[in-house]
Structure formats: C-alpha cells, structure tokens
TrEMBL record:
UniProt xrefs under InterPro entries: TPR-like_helical_dom_sf, TPR_rpt
N-terminal signal peptide: 1-29
Region (Disordered): 27-46
Species in which this protein is naturally found: Alsobacter ponti
Signal as UniProt keyword: yes
Protein keywords: Signal, TPR repeat
Keyword Plastid tagged: no
Protein name: Tetratricopeptide repeat protein
Segments of skewed composition (Low complexity): 36-46
TPR repeat locations: 122-155, 156-189
C-alpha cells in the first residue's frame, strides 16, 4: 500500500523593513517546501502460480527421477481427494476410516452417499470401486471404474484397476490395452510396466 507522508512544515513570517514615511508592512513568505515525497509503494511478493492438474501430469510424464515422480503422484492423488464439498469430504474420510478398520459394508454405505451427493467427483466412484473389488464384486467395481474414466480419463489407478479385472477374466488383449493407457499417463508404475513387458509377446503376436 502506497505510504503517505503526513508531515507538513509551518510557514515562517518574514518581516519587511519599515520606512520613516510609510506605515510598517508585513508579509509572509513560505519557506521552501521540505515535505517528504510519498514513499515508493512496496511491491507485493510475486507468488508462483499454483500447479494445475495439467501441469502435474505434464511434469509426471517428463521427469526421469522416481523420487520426484512419487511426489508428483502424491500431489495428483491429493487433488483427486478434494471434492470441493465439505460434506462429501467428511463422508469420504469416514468411509476410508471404515475401510481401514475392516468394515467394508459401512465403507460402501458411506461411499454410496458420496456418489449420490457428489456424482461428478471421480474419486468417490474410484474409492467405491476399490471396495467392491476387495469384496470380490468385480462387476460393480468395473462399472464404477468406467464412470471414473468418464469424469477423469487420466485416472491411471482406474485404468490399472480395469486392466486387473480384465486380466483376471482372461481378457488379456483388453487388459494389455488398459495397462498401456495407464502407463501413457503415468510411466512410473514399475509393476505395471513389468506386466506389460511380460504380456507383450503373446498379446501383440496375436491377430485378435
């Protein structure tokens, strides 16, 4: 904020000489102004623009450092976990606590509320798909994962999950494609890359 100087100097009186024939006269002459010039406005510190998800994905694909990649993945996942609604975030937090405590039915019940309350939040569907998969319900898990990709096509976790379900069902060709799509978004998934390398000779050698 621009600073202002409040200091003002008083005017000094200068007496003029009087002659014998004229009455004494006085006049005031102001001294040269010594008021301080306004202080220069202090420049606000320049804050870096926060990274968008697009920025984070671009950095994830560009980096060759696995430590940096891990940090970027963590930043992306934290963004995904923010719904923009305090209510949905609270329900998600309780669902994750229930899941950690081994109460999968309660986790599903809470996640049902999450997706009903915030249907455009991809992570709500993804977390419910995870619980369905853990419970062995791959049909509903697959349906939720497909919804995740509608909302966030770059969700490498959902792509990897779809690939795992397809592979378990014997559909290696489509599983291979899902794995490769996940790696195109996040090339720092060594287990997935190893699976793709193992599957490549068989899948790419077939005319399917």
């Amino acid at each position: 904020m621009l600073a202002r100087s409040a200091l003002r100097l008083g005017l000094s009186a200068a007496a003029l000489g009087a002659t014998l024939d004229l009455a004494a006269a006085q006049a005031e002459a102001p001294p040269p102004s010594r008021a301080r010039p306004p202080a220069a406005e202090k420049a606000a510190p320049v804050r870096p623009r926060p990274f968008t998800l697009d920025d984070l994905f671009a950095r994830l694909q560009a980096t060759k450092d696995p430590v940096e990649a891990k940090g970027i993945v963590g930043a992306i996942e934290r963004r995904w976990l923010r719904s923009g609604s305090d209510t949905a975030d609270l329900l998600m937090s309780r669902a994750l606590e229930a899941l950690q405590g081994g109460d999968q039915p309660l986790a599903i019940e809470l996640l049902d509320r999450v997706v009903a309350f915030q249907p455009n939040w991809a992570e709500g569907w993804n977390k419910r798909a995870t619980v369905f998969f853990m419970m062995g319900d791959t049909t509903r898990a697959m349906a939720d994962l497909e919804q995740v990709l509608i909302l966030e096509p770059r969700h490498f976790g959902a792509l990897a999950g779809i690939g795992a379900i397809l592979r378990n069902n014997g559909d290696d060709k489509r599983a291979f494609d899902a794995f490769r799509r996940a790696l195109a978004v996040n090339p720092h998934m060594p287990d997935l890359k190893e699976a793709v390398d193992r599957m490549a000779p068989d899948v790419e050698g077939r005319d399917i």
